[in-house]
Amino acid sequence: MWRCIEQSRCWLPSIATVRNEPLPRDPKALGMQKMNTKRLIEFLADSSTAVDPHEVRNRLVYAMSCGLLGCTVLLIAMLGIRPDIHAAVLTDVFWAKLGFSFSMMMGGLIVASRLSQPGQAVRGAWFGIVVPLVCIASASIISLYHSPSGTAWSLVSDRLWRSCPLDIAALSLPGLGALLHAMKRLAPTHLTLAGAVAGLIAGATAAFIYCLHCPEIEMSFWAARYVLGMTISATVGGLLGPMLLKW
């Protein structure tokens, strides 16, 4: 066998090692060429492509848009649009619901984009979520204070209190799946927090679409239920984050 190898003049390193022979120092003897470091650097520089600085945001916006579409389909199939929608869009309450939900969506989107990039500061981005919550909580407390006695009890006793948050949580599932899929392709490091923020965005998106069905006009009522629905979705996202966002 060694005679055949010698006849074929094969300079394989493994064979030389087995025969206890020193490896030839000349790279040409091994069929290798000397590396040109300068040419390698130039090749890597020329073949690289510029990264879009808005790539993370664009992915999250696309996922949120997919969730918005899926949520709309679910709303029409499960609950339907309120019959007096033409009159509802002329009221201030309707636009207050949309404005609050949209503010939570945008605030969550900013936080999610920071969490998806290691090393990005997140602390200041929380104001985009805290400010809408503080505003709606203050307005709800004032509205409840000026409401007739017994209104607070009806806040937790009627049927809509039980159905509305669960409806929002159910409508948030398409958006939650799309956002978790998009964030998995990025680089989140705080998986639980990133999943919770994805759930919050999905819940806000669901609340935004749920305005087309919700007949409630009392601010303290719908605000509490919308926030609870977003909280349920955020909790689900926080539980799924460590399992689905590993990279």
Overall mean pLDDT stands at: 81
Query: How far apart lie the N and C ends?
Result: 48 Å
Largest sheet: none
Q: Level of helix content?
A: over 70%
Indicate the radius of gyration in whole angstroms: 29 Å
Give the total of domains: 2
Alpha-beta content class? mainly alpha
Note the overall shape: elongated
User: What is the strand tally?
Assistant: 0
Q: Number of helical segments?
A: 12
Which stretches of 5+ consecutive residues score pLDDT under 50? 1-19
N-to-C order of helices and strands: HHHHHHHHHHHH
Q: Strand percentage, roughly?
A: under 5%
Question: What's this entry about, in short?
Answer:
This protein has about 250 residues and is mainly alpha-helical. It has helices at about 1-10, 15-20, 35-45, 55-80, 85-90, 90-115, 125-145, 150-155, 160-170, 175-185, 190-210, 220-245.
Walkthrough of the structure:
There is one protein chain. This protein has 247 residues and is mostly helical. It has two domains: 2-47, no CATH class; 56-244, no CATH class. The chain is 70% helix and 0% strand. It is built from twelve helices and no strands. Helix 4 (55-78) runs antiparallel to helix 10 (173-184), helix 9 crosses helix 11 (191-210) and helix 10 runs antiparallel to helix 11 (191-210). The two termini are 48 Å apart. 32% of the residues are buried. Mean pLDDT is 81; it is low at 1-19.
